[in-house]
User: Fold this.
Amino acid sequence: MMNPTHIGVGLVVAAPTLILAPEFVVPAAIGGMAGGVLPDLDLFVGRHRRTLHFPEAYWLAAIPLLALAAIRPTALTVAVAVAVVSMAVHSGMDWFGAGDELEPWERTSSEAVYLHLRGRWLQPKYWVRYDGAAEDLAITVVCSLAGLLFPAPIPTIAAINVAVAVLYALVRKRVPAVVDGQL
Ligand SMILES: [Zn+2]
Assistant:
């Protein structure tokens, strides 16, 4: 799934704080969005869908961090707990998309996301056919609506997120040619 989808889902992950910790909703939203972005930084360092993607291990970290945030709620503990949950959700969600390849609609990759504790790759499920597909954009739009529940500047960031997602979805199939230097 494309990064704006993970950012939108990060807002959904942060949404319970609107009821549970209303004084920390902005740090929670920022944590949720940052946690949505962070795993995909392994596009640039290490092995994508593996180096910073931990579909199981992030949960092991998230549980004590959530407990800490519940006992000692501060902007930092809430933001970090929401961020790590968002990273766990991101890593798990990648299983339901395509494999790690430049043209995911070709379905030649069997590597969706790496299970570190088992030492093997999860096979892509293709519920979302490829990053930037129409269903991927639909998830971004629906989840980003959660941003409207938060105070400024979160609704603006959510709107920018949707705009980026629309642009990405429009150009996605041209990306391989750009990477190959044909355009
Ligand atoms: Zn990812």
